[in-house]
Design goal:
- The complex is a heterodimer of chains A (about 300) and B (about 425).
- Helix content of chain A is about 70%, strand content about 0%.
- With about 300 residues, chain A is mainly α.
- Chain A has a two-stranded antiparallel sheet with strand order 1-2.
- Chain B has about 425 residues and is an alpha/beta fold.
- Chain B has a five-stranded mixed sheet, sandwiched between helices.
- The interface between A and B is large, with 37 and 41 residues.
Chain lengths: ~300, ~425
């Protein structure tokens, strides 16, 4: 019997051109994304970091300030107010958007008449820009001529100071953001729900589980990866909130709705203290990175599959 | 030709590269329709960036045509929305590719001039250029005593009033001449009368100090004969009796409910909208609002002069035209000279309901196209602006000072901060702003 074997050294010789071709193809696919990411994300990021160590009004090269901008942040009352508002906004909007989104998704995943229409209605706000959404919010929440106060007035209920009262102003921003964001959460949850096998619900029903128990012990755990994704996205969106606040309240009254991005914008483009504004931006980035890392390490359901 | 993977990848890379390059070219600020090689008519080429209403842009286009015909040069007009105007200009300056000429509010002018980004027009403008303009207009384009622009037009706030709402309160005697303008006390009496006769959700007036319009609060300071900067523009000067009077009086608007509570300086509801909605009987507004009000309001309205205290005073609103430091000095100066010529300025101001800065046009030289009978009110009001007032607003530190005014006045108006703390806050803020430059 003749046994033919390939020489160990012949294998690379035969496959090498193919491997090289594969490598080239792989890099060719990756390169445009990496180049665009580098050019439009990493370069501005590093640039912002460099600017945050400078004292500059944006014209000319600026002067080196070391950690002065970061030291200023520690004693800046408006920065801490904006940071607190941002955390509060995130803490309120994220769970509410997720809960309402999941509720709507469960409802619209069931046998509901005209559910296509309801889904479209909920998704529709996503098609509208943040600025347009906020302008509609102004029409609703203007405390003199807005629709909401007119309705309250006509029904004899007390009007709310949506623009001059700190708490109502904050609430108006939260409500408009929720209107915009619940549709997004609903859409993502809907795709998660449609990945759950109906047999699991059938089995749970046979085991005597009621509607709430099926929701609590089947639906909620199995949409864990979706929830993980939505929590991260909602927190990032909330920390980056700008257009709704800028158009609806401008950060007022008395900084009650000022958030980190509006504060950075005011500092960078109105006061023209661009080094300090960049420092605010870098702090915002660090907060978001920290949150995402913590969420990544602590989430038990992010990789849960059926 | 078969489409292989290699060709697909090559094509994709080329398209990506083209997209990146075209994206970069979006920052150049050049008119996309211009062709630098062929558009040059032999007399040079300029890029001019501005925002504007339809009437303003029509005025600019007409003036550009006039300049192009007389000089043989080509001007590429780049009209952008106001909201994007200065983020674009700043990005273009930072990228080293700004327009040759752009339009800038007087309160922003100092930021660019002070940062060395504008062309010093000394020696490039005609020798009699200074004499052409009113003293207050000329003062608004000076930085360190040198002209870095030309005052293209101005605007100042007078009072628009709803005739019916005033009549309902028994107020029929509204000043018709500058000499009869209400004093602060008379304005207070009118406001009190209106307040007592109006339902809770209606207000005597609204004031236009929202956003960067916070500089219009300075009109009260000027009327009290005060200053916010020292004469050399390097220190705060608001800690004065006039400063206290201005803060006290304007705080009382909110305490007495003469203005709606969302009429504060950081509100996103503009005063004009409050008046349009008939929530307020009167509003302070510039003449630029006349065409819009005339077209959209279905109630009878008029305009009268802003009040006076120790003296008359008003905001020096409007815009200058400036050239950037690397523009062709002679061509840019010739263009600015042409745009501020009598014919161009008259046509622009009449069409857009704005006020001229040329001394020869101020004295009855123009008449608004819409509601021409209101022209004397605004020309008269503009005459109340003193050169010492407009010079302060042209300070290179004005952008920082605007932030200080916004923060402190918001606290005073709706945050319960008292007058002394407000004056102290503004003083400290201005001192920091001036020291930071």
């Amino acid at each position: 019997m003749t046994v033919t074997t390939r020489s160990p050294t012949s294998r690379p010789a035969v496959n090498r051109p193919r491997r090289v071709r594969d490598d080239v193809a792989g890099w060719s696919f990756v390169t445009p994304s990496v180049a665009l990411l580098g050019l439009f994300v990493l370069v501005p990021l590093v640039w912002a970091l460099v600017i945050s160590f400078q004292r500059t009004d944006g014209f000319g090269s600026g002067s080196w300030a070391g950690l002065q901008n970061y030291a200023r942040l520690v004693g800046d009352r408006q920065f801490w107010r904006a940071a607190l508002n941002t955390v509060l906004f995130t803490g309120i909007v994220t769970p509410l958007a997720l809960a309402l989104g999941l509720g709507a998704a469960v409802l619209l995943n069931s046998v509901l008449p005209a559910r296509g229409v309801f889904r479209s209605v909920l998704i529709l706000p996503m098609a509208i820009s943040g600025v347009a959404t906020a302008l509609m919010g102004v029409l609703v929440f203007d405390e003199n001529t807005g629709i909401l106060n007119r309705m309250l007035r006509s029904t004899g209920l007390p009007e709310a100071a949506w623009q001059s009262g700190s708490v109502p102003a904050f609430a108006s921003v939260v409500l408009v953001t929720l209107w915009w964001r619940v549709g997004f959460c609903m859409l993502i949850y809907l795709s998660g729900l449609q990945g759950i096998s109906p047999t699991l619900y059938e089995q749970a029903r046979l085991d005597g589980a009621g509607a709430w128990q099926r929701f609590r012990h089947v639906t909620v755990p199995l949409v864990g990866p979706t929830t993980f994704f939505l929590v991260v996205m909602n927190v990032i969106y909330s920390f980056q909130v700008f257009d709704v606040v800028f158009v609806m309240t401008g950060g007022g009254p008395r900084d009650a709705t000022s958030v980190l991005v509006t504060y950075a914008y005011e500092t960078g483009f109105v006061t023209r203290d661009q080094g300090y504004a960049a420092a605010v931006g870098i702090v915002l980035l660090l907060i978001m990175l920290t949150f995402t890392a913590v969420q990544w390490r602590t989430s038990r359901t992010r990789d849960l599959v059926e | 030709m078969p489409l292989t993977r290699r060709r697909l990848l090559g094509g994709g890379t080329a398209l990506t590269g083209a997209a990146v390059l075209s994206a970069c070219s979006g920052f150049t600020g050049r008119d996309s329709g211009s062709d630098e090689g062929s558009a040059n008519g032999g007399g040079g080429e300029l890029t001019f960036t501005t925002w504007g209403t339809d009437a303003e842009l029509a005025g600019f286009r007409s003036a550009i045509e006039r300049f192009e015909q007389s000089s043989g040069a080509t001007v590429n007009l780049n009209a952008v929305p106001y909201e994007q105007m200065f983020t674009n200009i700043d990005a273009q300056i930072q990228a080293g590719n700004p327009p040759d000429v752009f339009r800038v509010p007087y309160y922003t002018f100092g930021s660019y001039a002070g940062a060395g980004q504008l062309l010093d027009l000394s020696g490039h403008l005609p020798a009699d250029a200074q004499d052409r303009f009113t003293p207050q207009a000329w003062a608004a384009v000076l930085n360190g005593g040198k002209p870095y622009g030309v005052p293209h037009h101005t605007d100042t706030s007078a009072i628009f009033y709803n005739v019916q709402m005033l009549q309902d309160a028994g107020i029929t005697d509204v000043p018709t001449t500058l000499a009869d303008a209400w004093t602060w006390d008379e304005l207070s009496a009118v406001a009190a009368t209106l307040r007592s006769s109006m339902p809770d959700d209606r207000y005597p007036f609204a004031y236009n100090w929202q956003g960067n319009g916070v500089t219009r609060w300075l009109s009260w300071l000027f009327q009290a004969d005060g200053r916010f900067l020292t004469e050399d523009l390097f220190g705060p000067a608001i800690d004065s009796e006039a400063g206290r009077a201005a803060v006290d009086f304007t705080r009382s608007f909110f305490e007495q409910r003469w203005v709606p509570s969302n009429n504060s300086v950081k509100s996103t509801t503009y005063a004009a909208d409050t008046w349009y909605g008939q929530t307020a009987a009167m509003v302070w507004s510039g003449a630029f609002n006349i065409p819009d009000a005339d077209a959209s309001l279905d109630f009878e309205w008029g305009a009268t002069f802003a009040p006076t205290d120790v003296r008359g005073g008003g905001d020096f609103g409007g815009n200058a035209l400036v050239a950037t430091k690397d523009a062709d000095p002679e061509l840019a100066a010739a263009f600015l000279d042409s745009l501020t010529g009598a014919d161009s300025m008259r046509e622009f101001c009449q069409g857009a309901s704005l006020l001229p800065t040329r001394a020869d046009l101020v004295d009855g030289g123009i008449e608004f196209t819409v509601r021409p009978e209101l022209t004397p009110v605004f020309l008269g009001q503009a005459s109340q602006v003193a050169a010492q007032d407009s010079a302060q607003v042209a300070s290179p530190d004005m952008s920082r000072i605007i932030t200080v005014l916004k923060d402190q006045l918001e606290q005073a108006f709706v945050g319960g901060q008292n007058t002394e703390d407000t004056i102290a806050g503004i003083t400290a803020g201005i001192a920091d702003a001036v020291a930071a430059s």
